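We modelled the chain as a single entity of 171 amino acids. Its sequence is:
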Amino acid sequence: MKSSIFLLSTLSTFVLGDSGFFQSCNNLDISDDHYLYAHCRQNDGGQRLTVEDLNLCIANANGQLVAREGGNYAFSCSHCYISGSAIMKCDCQSASGKRTTSIDLNPFIGNSDGYMWCFGHRSAPKACCSYSSACCNTDTCVSSLENCLYNCPQDQPGAVAGCIAACYTIC
């Protein structure tokens, strides 16, 4: 019984301890209405440029954005952007038509050593693999991509997505 309580206590600390990514991530940007880009602090104090597919984290519930694993909201929402701190706004389809809605990303997206995560889905800087199988098979390309992503401007909000798109062309 004691070990079960300890395990639950430890698991709760792990799950909740890393949430609230906004305190350790900056330069948030949305691309293609569902990719969240950010520079997130690593445990060693460095920064990592990371991307999380928010379709894995958010659903459109009749025009209202809600945190839900595998929600695939971007199929019925468009014109998404970050407004203020960690608030994402989108135009989403509802039964009565399109409406503008928002969601605070901070309660369900975390940062673990520079990687954003939600519902157990962890982002990674080697996102190139989802775009080109050649990247996965070529260490040089992956290394070049990581260097490119690392050197994207951290002080120019809105420029992150463009820089990342340019980096992917190296593959």
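As a brief sanity check on the tokenised model: The radius of gyration is 17 Å. The chain has two domains: 10-124, 126-171.
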